[in-house]
Amino acid sequence: MKKLVLTGAMGRLGSYLREPLSTMCDEFVSSDILDAPCKLYANETFVQADLADLEAMVDLLDGADMVVHFGAIGDEAPFETLLGPNFIGAYNIWEAAHRNECRRVVYASSIHAVGMHKKTDFIGIDAPHKPDTFYGLAKCFAEDLASMYWDKRGLESVCMRILSCAQVTNPRAVGTWLSYDDLVHLVTQSIETPITGFSVIYGVSNNDRAPVDNAKAQHLGYRPKDNAEQFAQAMFEEAGPLDPQDAGNTHHGGPFASVELGNSGIAALNLNADDVAKS
Ligand SMILES: NC(=O)c1ccc[n+]([C@@H]2O[C@H](COP(=O)([O-])OP(=O)(O)OC[C@H]3O[C@@H](n4cnc5c(N)ncnc54)[C@H](O)[C@@H]3O)[C@@H](O)[C@H]2O)c1
C-alpha cells in the first residue's frame, strides 16, 4: 500500500495503532485536531486538521489507498457537541474518501450503535441498530453512510463495533474486553482482507463471556487471542452483587444504556488512570 491515513491518531487507540500501521505502507499520514506527537515514525507525517472541515479532509486523503477513521469524541455528550466531529466528521471522511477514489474506510464504530439490545440476546452483526446515546446514534449514522457509499459509490468499509478497548477494571469488561493486541490484529485484518464490501464486525477479544456473535464476519479472518476470563473472579468479587434491574448491567451498552442522554457514559466505567491519560 502506498498511502494510509489514520484519524484520531493522538487518541488512546490511535496511539496504539500508529506504529503497526506505519509498517503497512510507504507513506503513513496521522491526523488529529490536537498537536503533533513528539516522535514521528520513519515514514510518518502528521497533519493537524478538524474532521468537521470537509476541504481539510479532502486534502488529507489526497492519494490515499485507505483511511483508518478513529477520530471522534469518544463518549456521550450533548448532540450539539457531537454534531461536528462525530456526525459531520463521518460524512466528511466518506465523502473525502470517495472524491479521492480511496479503496476503503476502516471505521471505529461501537457497541453503542446497538447498546439497547439486552445482553441475554447474543446479537450478531446483523442486529438492527438500537443506539443507547447520541454517541451511539452517530455510530449508526456512520455505519449507514458506509453502507450507502458501498451500494451507490463502490467504496468499501469495515465497521468495527468495538466493545471495550481498555484495561479490565469492571465486571462488564469480562465480556466486552478488546485487548490492544487484538485491536491491532482486527485493524490489520480489516486493511489486508482483499475484498470486504460493506462489512460489520464486533471488536472483542476471545472472551468466554463475549456477548456478541461474529459468525457472519468470518471472511475478515479475525481470530482474537486474548481472553478476559483471567480477570473474572477478581472483578466480580470487587464489585459485589450486581443489580439485575439496572439497564447498565443488563444491556449491551452498559452504563451508556442507563445514563441520561447527553451525560458521560465513560465516567461510570472505572477506567484506569493509565487508560484515561491516553484519551
Ligand atoms: N476506547 C474504546 O473502548 C472504544 C470503544 C468503541 C469505539 N471506540 C471508538 O474508537 C475511536 C477512538 O477511541 P479512543 O478511545 O482512542 O478515543 P480518544 O478520545 O482517546 O481519541 C479520539 C481522538 O479523536 C480526536 N478528535 C476529536 N474531535 C476531533 C475533531 N473535530 N477533528 C479531529 N480529531 C478529533 C481527539 O483529539 C482524540 O485524539 C473513537 O471513534 C471511539 O468512538 C472506542
SS element count, helices: 10
Give the CA-based shape: globular
Which structural class do the helices and strands define? alpha/beta
CATH homologous superfamily classification: NAD(P)-binding Rossmann-like Domain
How many strand elements? Answer: 9
Radius of gyration: 18 Å
Bound molecules: nicotinamide-adenine-dinucleotide
Q: How much of the polypeptide forms β-strand, as a percent range? A: 15-25%
CATH architecture: 3-Layer(aba) Sandwich
Order of helices and strands: EHEEHEHEEHEHHEEHHHH
How many structural domains in the coordinates?
1
Q: What topology, given as strand order, has the largest sheet?
A: 3-2-1-4-5-7-8
Q: Can you give the mean pLDDT?
A: 96
Can you walk through the features of this model?
The chain contains ten helices and nine strands. It is globular. It has a single domain, classed as Rossmann fold. It starts with a strand and ends with a helix. Helix 1 packs across helix 6, helix 2 crosses helix 3 and helix 3 packs parallel to helix 4. It has a seven-stranded parallel sheet with strand order 3-2-1-4-5-7-8, sandwiched between helices. A two-stranded parallel sheet has the order 6-9. The protein has 279 residues and is of the alpha/beta class. The site of nicotinamide-adenine-dinucleotide has 27 residues, from helix 1, helix 3 and strand 5.
Descriptors for this entry?
two-stranded parallel ribbon; Rossmann fold; 279 residues; 10 helices; 9 strands; globular; binds nicotinamide-adenine-dinucleotide; alpha/beta
